[in-house]
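Reproducibility note. Readers wishing to regenerate the assembly model reported in the main text can use the exact inputs given here. Chain order matters: entities are listed in the order in which they were concatenated for prediction.
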Amino acid sequence: MTKSKLYFLLLIGSITTFLISCNGTKSKNTAPANSTFIYNELIVSVKTDANILLDDFNIYELKIKKTINKRMGMYLLTYNTDKIAPEKMLEKVRATENVSNAEFNKNLTERDN
Amino acid sequence: MKYIKLLLPFFLLTYFCQDVFSQKLDYVDGELIVQHDSNIDAIRWVRQMNQSEGVLSHLKYKKLISASLNIHLYSFVDVSDLRILDAVRKSEGIVLAQFNHFLELRQTIPDDPQFMDQWQYINTGQDGGTVGADIDADLAWDIATGGLTPEGDTIVVCIIDGGYQITHPDLADNVWYNYAEIPNNGIDDDNNGFTDDFRGWSTSSNSDAIDQGPTGHGTPVAGIVGAVGNNGIGVAGVNWDVKLMLIQGGSGVESEVLEAYGYALEARIRYNETDGAEGAFVVSTNASWGIDFGQPADAPLWCSFYDSLGVHGIVSCGATINGNQNVDVIGDLPTACPSDFLISVTNMNRNDQKVTGAGYGLETIDLGAFGSETWTLSNGSSYDSFGGTSGATPHVAGAIALLYSAPCSNLIALAKADPATAALQVKQYILENGDDNPSLDGITTTGKRLNINNSMLTLMNNCGPCPNPVALRSFNITDTNATLEWTSNQNAVEDTLRWREQGIVDWNIIAPATAGIELTDLLACTFYEFQVTSSCDTIASDPSQIHTFKTDGCCELPTEISTSDLTETTATISWNSILAAQSYNIRYREVASMDWTEITDLTTTTTQISDLIACTPYVYQIQIVCENDIIDYGMEQNFVTLGCGPCLDLQYCTVGALNTVDEWIESFETGSINNASGNDDGYGDYTSTVTTTFETYGSYDFTITPGYAGINYDENIKIWIDLDGDGMFSTSEKVFEILNVNNTVTGQFQIPPTNITGLTRMRVGMYFNDTNDTCNPGAGNFGEVEDYCVYIVEGTPQCAQATNVQIAAITETSALVSWTQVNLAESYLLNYKEVNQMTWNEITSSTNSINLEDLSECSDYELRIKTVCSFIDSEFTENENFMTDCFSDIEAISNFNDVSVFPSPFDYQLNLSFNSQDLKENITINLLNELGQIIFAQEVENSTNQNHDIQIDTEYIPEGLYLLRLQSGADQKIIKVVKTNR
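Running the prediction on these inputs yields the following structure tokens for the assembly.
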């Protein structure tokens, strides 16, 4: 392929991308409704040992992804959303005696304009 | 404001160099400023002086000015000012002494060359700004410019953002480093839970690579808080000198934000626990990011984190949504979090106006700060304007740090003894001392815009070893009694309360007084005021601010009036009890009438009015009858009786937040509704303004036009009608839906049979993200919802007739019949016959088109259609007539022989055969569409082979009527053919 042909193809590709982005069929830059929540990740504050929680929810493949704050017993957990609906999972985790509170992890956006 | 004279109750060291006797008498009467030797305890010294018999016995200690320089303010009475000054100067252990001078207000301006572009500090009207619309930073800098507390603590602000250019020449010197950590040795040297966190922390890489990631946002945010000031280059931050604890990666995901906050918290806890030996004196955090429409209920851990930070002395600042949204209603994270230790900030422009595209909230958003086009650092060691609430908020985070650098040792002592109280006090200085701003009035908790100098001055005025009591309040107020409370400083030994009737000169003194004291024997309906002074060992505080309250017992109108228990004919009216009232009178009338009905001599605070007319608006008033007075009827109250139908009688769910920054419902039309609503900020309530009538079984056209700010995004249009009148919209009540449209939509819906008649609710929704939830369209969704009331009346229980019947593609033997789809139709019955026949042929179709076949050529036909529904079928349509083609009509001069075209209709291939023995020239074969456009052409040689078989590929041509044209010189044959997809 000659260089001029390559540039031509790149130009066509760019124009196509531009047209697709202008016709309103693509999603917005702004996060769509369901992208705020990261449904397969829970932020959980435990009263004692997080491993107890993992044992309790082993069937949902609950795992520690990261320790957020050891002093506050706060962890980022993941689980398999194929095994349980996210809202149900959150409800169950919150209802656990060892858990102070829990919430879905979320995406944030910067606030300049 | 900058050019008026103010009393600055602190001493500038440079003034010690001046000869006091050469000055005019421009000092505070009865005050001296004294610097002692460093080994002198000022309190003890003044106590010793008080016990002497000389002139110094008149001296009273007033407040500490600088602990590090051992400078104090004293007061005196009943003695010559020059005599006492002279006596002090002659005392042992005195370094310097002088009167407390009034000073001309001074500005302190850094030498940074781009400083005058920073209109947020001094607004001279540059670039169309409003003169004086600034935070008075230059005046505050006359007191302190940041860096260290008066006790020598290094002040630290924690910034959580995407990344930073830490080599920026105007930032590098103010970056915080964790010198307890040895960089890159793979060991958590300071045992704080973070390994190699020398330059701060990156939550995304678990290292101190804070200069990685996008730095275009974090760099200007950090620059606003603490670009190095007075260094001869670039710009100045709110703090010229401060340490910026930079945490990278925390602006994208909540879990990383919480980890970042945890890093700052750990540092401050260690600092508090080790008296500054470890950790860092973090006083504020900055969050120039968030979640639009986020709900605190979905973030209990995040929101409570601000309390955890606050308890240990850290005030957090959050940027609210960059959209003209009421955060009280739509929610926002973090700025709707309810923590006492969070300051939620909105955005102001250079004309001191709230930026239109910035959030607000009377209960959630605290104050405004300048953010729009503020001049600060940018990437690439450069400078640029920066904006949004992202730019506003770091001004507040920086202001908090600046206050801690003020020469007020007591604040620092408080911060170490009681970090939470100090944090709340600093927050109070920020919030209560902004400039009143009309564009924020009534839509923020304070109605104010940040003014750092005001905050600094108030802090200094309250700075002393014995601060005055705060938080004065009154409660349990009757016509004779009131309970008074206040909060004293921790050094207070005893409090003195003084109170009086407003307007009376003499105070009543109660000493000692304890918070919670009850005043008795007060006069009814009278204003009183009180204030409290604390005594701390040998010194007394200044009196507190005066708190005013009014006793009960006024003959006045009630303020809490409500209407409840509405029925079609009755309403219950309640109001708060008025102590002085002997009885109450009520009068009411229909809004449309001028005739009042009066109920008199009521001795209770609730009554039911009856015999009302259903679905009718009423107005009523209350009158108070006291022993010696009658207060005339007060403000009119309104209600509407039930019976209007579900639309107004029932409480439909509130529609959750929808963002209309890009799209909204521009207009909606159906029946007699023609509503060019425009942008309603996500929800338009038109239930009491426009309506129309729908008959059951009727079909109704509508038009909905989206409005777009720019790109025509695809939208999902849905219409629900509460057909069972239960106050909700169920799935079966969705009467129309179309997905992914980006322009005006016209459509039709049918009203099915329903038991409801009267007004019911119609909800029209346009959503960017598809949803079937009529109440909560989903956080972050775009679009708009409009509610209307529509009258449902009983119509004829019949299917609608088919309309717009079209007969096309007529050949000798076939015709294609089509019509408009009818809502709720289960099938269609089509009758057809030759006109001269008696019997109808019958065909049933589940779709709205039928291809009639095996018709007779050249014959007149008629047809009619009936719609079949689950209830009563429609009547047949009027007869439609058509005539099949005649072969003779389409044969012109033709010597083509044995012409055959098949199949008819054709699908993916059309076959043609003919004989050309009577033709003289070659043959051209064309297939033409209804517009006469040639879509197939072939030349056939008329030579030896005179029997021709032609196959035409028709797979990809649309359905419809076509003409097959055979031409050879003057000879021509045209055949109509029909394409259908089988």
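We highlight two features of this model. The first helix of chain A runs from residue 3 to 22. Residues 42 and 104 of chain A are 5 Å apart (CA to CA).
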